[in-house]
Design brief:
seven-stranded mixed β-sheet; alpha+beta; 13 helices; single chain; binds flavin-adenine dinucleotide; globular; FAD/NAD(P)-binding domain
């Protein structure tokens, strides 16, 4: 169906004119309506920035966010299924935007990482001591958690932020998309329809929503995804303090199909996130039976989880996540591989909001001004694949693990000025720095030299011990 096209007037695109940009073929004007499908991080950040930027150029737009999930509910019904780590870089970025996560949302400040391997473990302290990582629940918490209300959850807080910026929250599932005279039309679960001047799709990858676009937007191909596993354990405060502390515990274990696993403390709960290929019960059981994992629990016994789910994660970017009057953001479009998905949702959502307000809502506006932000993340993901291939090798080859463990433990023990391996591992696990920075750190001339030395020394010590148990480095 042909889209309505008209010549933009200066008043349609004031900021574009002020910025010296070309007028768009399709621009929002006073009274324009924007629909947002999904009230997770991508949808709420987009809405917040759109309304803030529009207000700054005196553009009066109305935004409806469709979000059927009630983030005040306990268990999977109120949750957007994730590890809940808000990276230190995102915590700081949000603070500069005036968005300070309230203490009621941060269930635990993460101060260090403990890396567990079969040959020992090592604690990695935050390289810059003022930085903090926040561990949050996306909803109210596991099934057995105390009710705390929607604003006590990360997603509930963001949705309230979007509503307080002036958006209307529509508590309905969108189940049909069509075009109405060149404008996107949304039909929700009760059969009600609404036509918009722009539709932002921020529905993630864990619903059927992306299947609605096959005929409506044939240029868009939804992202490729991988099944993951999350579960929650309930432990006593003493057990959590003694066995876990203010640390995230990550595991580099030689278990086939396992890519990454982490235990994250949150209040009285401990979240397990497991990423791998074809995650199934056999892989989960093998992981939970590993001695390094059992050692993290009181008496070496892993309790039964109080909540669990198998969410999907975006692993290959969507193709062409934009068109005339439509844009896909967050996991529905391009997301950072394995780490800091919330941070990449923030960056892409902000780029989309800037494009819409400062440039326009035509295909070419998104291509010129929104797509570069997606492309940066996508290019960085290509580097991530190389890094994860190396980390896979370390997982498999014991002699490499010895070198990595020795180098990290020595840096931590000596409080070395340059902590090459610790910083690489920190940024890799926390998702705080782009993957290209992680890679470039390993190009520092001292890095390979130190690694070679630690590989030789670590394996020589091992040979001398002649089969004796290797000590923990923590
Ligand atoms: C195992 C695992 C662990 C992770 N850990 C982390 C982590 O620790 N830190 C981090 O930064 N990222 C993490 N991520 C990634 C992170 O969860 C995502 O990148 C992030 O949630 C993407 O936000 P989003 O808004 O795009 O999508 P979502 O958070 O999925 O939100 C989509 C929203 O759209 C709504 N919706 C869906 N369909 C419809 C419809 N038809 N109509 C209306 N609404 C609809 C949903 O209810 C939902 O609220 C993890 C992911 C997985 C799978």
């Amino acid at each position: 169906m042909a889209l309505v096209q008209r010549t933009a007037r200066p008043s349609d695109n004031l900021a574009g004119y002020f910025a010296g940009g070309e007028a768009s073929r399709l621009a929002l004007s006073d009274g324009s309506r924007v629909g947002v499908i999904g009230g997770g991080p991508a949808g709420t950040f987009f809405t917040h920035f759109l309304l803030r930027l529009a207000a700054a150029v005196d553009l009066d737009v109305a935004v409806d966010i469709y979000e059927p999930r009630n983030f005040a509910y306990q268990g999977p019904a109120g949750c957007n299924h994730c590890g809940g780590i808000v990276s230190e870089s995102l915590v700081q970025l949000l603070a500069t935007e005036g968005i300070n996560l309230p203490p009621s949302i941060v269930r635990r400040g993460i101060e260090s990482y403990v890396l567990h391997m079969d040959i020992g473990n090592v604690r990695i302290e935050t390289p810059l001591h003022e930085k903090r990582i926040a561990a949050v629940f996306r909803g109210n918490g596991p099934r057995v958690s105390e009710p705390i209300g929607a604003s006590g959850s990360f997603d509930g807080y963001l949705l309230e932020l979007a509503a307080s910026s002036g958006a209307k929250v529509v508590r309905k599932l969108v189940n049909e998309i069509s075009w109405d005279g060149g404008r996107p039309q949304v039909t929700s679960s009760d059969g009600a329809t609404a036509t918009y001047d722009l539709l932002a799709v921020a529905a993630g990858v864990n619903s059927q929503a992306l299947q609605l676009f096959g005929e409506v937007a044939p240029q868009y191909h939804s992202p490729k995804t991988l099944k993951t596993f999350i579960c929650e354990f309930k432990l006593s405060p003493e057990a959590l303090d003694r066995h876990i502390g203010p640390s995230m515990h990550v595991f580099l274990l030689d278990i086939p199909r396992l890519e990454f696993a982490a235990l994250i403390p949150k209040g009285e709960f401990l979240t397990l996130c497991l990423l791998g290929h074809d995650v199934d019960n056999a892989l989960i059981d093998t992981f939970l039976s590993a001695p390094e994992v059992k050692a993290c629990f009181p008496d070496g016994a892993v309790p039964s989880p109080v909540c669990h789910c198998f969410p999907r994660v975006n692993v290959v970017a969507a193709a062409r996540p934009y068109g005339d009057r439509i844009v896909w953001i967050g996991d529905s479009g391009v997301a950072r591989l394995y780490k800091d998905g919330i941070g990449s949702a923030y960056r892409v959502a902000k780029a989309a909001a800037k494009t819409v307000v400062h440039h326009g809502v035509a295909d070419e506006d998104f291509r010129r001004h929104f797509w570069p932000a997606c492309k940066r993340i996508d290019n960085d993901n290509s580097i991530a694949k190389v890094i994860f291939a190396v980390s896979g090798l370390i997982q498999k080859l014991r002699f490499l693990r010895r070198g990595v463990l020795r180098m990290t433990a020595n840096e931590q023990r000596r409080q070395a000025r340059r902590r090459h391996m610790s910083t690489v591992l920190w940024d890799l696990f926390t998702g705080s720095a782009p993957y290209r920075e992680v890679l470039s750190r390993s190009f520092h001339p001292e890095f390979p030299a130190m690694l070679c030395w630690n590989l030789i020394a670590g394996n020589a010590v091992r040979a001398r011990r002649n089969g004796s148990e290797e000590p923990s480095h923590e």
